[in-house]
Design goal:
This is 2-oxoglutarate (2OG) and Fe(II)-dependent oxygenase superfamily protein. It comes from Melia azedarach (Chinaberry tree). By secondary structure, the chain is α+β, with helices and mostly antiparallel strands. Helix content is 27%, strand content 23%. The strands form 3 sheets. It has an 8-stranded mixed β-sheet with strand order 1-2-10-7-12-5-4-3. Strands 6-11-8-9 form a 4-stranded antiparallel β-sheet, with no helix packed on it. A two-stranded antiparallel ribbon has the order 13-14. Strand 1, helix 1 and strand 2 form a beta-alpha-beta unit. Helix 1 crosses helix 5 and helix 2 crosses helix 5. It is globular, with a radius of gyration of 19 Å. 35% of the residues are buried.
Length: 314
Amino acid sequence: MAEYPTAALHRIDLSNPDIHQSAALLKQACLDSGFFYVTNHGVSEEFMNEVFAQSKRFFELPWNEKEKLVKKEKTRGYKKFQQELNPLQANPNGNYTETYRIGIELPEDDPNTNIWPSADALPGWKETMQKYYQEALDASRRVARIIALALDVNIDFFDQPQLFGETVSNLYFLHYGGQVIDASKEVLGAQAHTDFGLITLLATTDVLGLQICKDKYARPQIWEYVPPLKGAFIVNIGDMLERFSNCAFRSTVHRVVFRGEDRYSLSFFLYPRLDCVIESLPTFKSEENPPKHPPVTCGEFLNSQFAKVAKLSF
């Protein structure tokens, strides 16, 4: 298997009383690589350990229990990601990636409501994951306030009801597992991609796997590992933030290289409400630098992106 260097990323301390200093550091990170660490984010290490333990319990369920949570036509629930979402990732070396996805609670008659494992199979699981979803949402909104300053707009820009009043943010639980038959071949747990939303908060175990390519247009692509940092979220900006910044900030290509070890991660994708308009901010456009993309609503953009990988919609 090929060897790769380690990326040097900035650290943003959410407890720093000098928020403008944090904003300047975050802005540089968004210009450099689109990836950074966030510390003192408000989610305790004890609770994070519990969430990972509960996530592992879910993925260890027998197939007949997980199968009850498979809804091919919906965005939420359980999926063997490679088989269900992207057949191009089918892997002859025998590994697989499986996911479980939840979002904000919706009425039971809503077609996109959460699909939960039974309390008999996993007592207390639903309540733990609902709590983590809310804590991850709160942490991401704190990061978004610093991002607003980095974008040279008011600190409460992303707090506006028309942006995040009814967020459609999602939380993914991921398990990269299985066995590699031929260890000499490089196996991808997740193919190279960018994220669709505003930002992604990633928590992961200490198993290495995440890689970034800072210049997505470079050929050949140059990959660097992003190692986990104890107690920190790995944060990356998504396509929507790239559009808000008129492509000044980088929605960086990343992937996961499978190294023959079980790896668990929690990915929280921060999205605004479906009717929020994604367009270049006045601070990043001018006659000399016109918008590089036309305005689009969050719902329209997500549906167009998901249509590229699966027949799913919000």
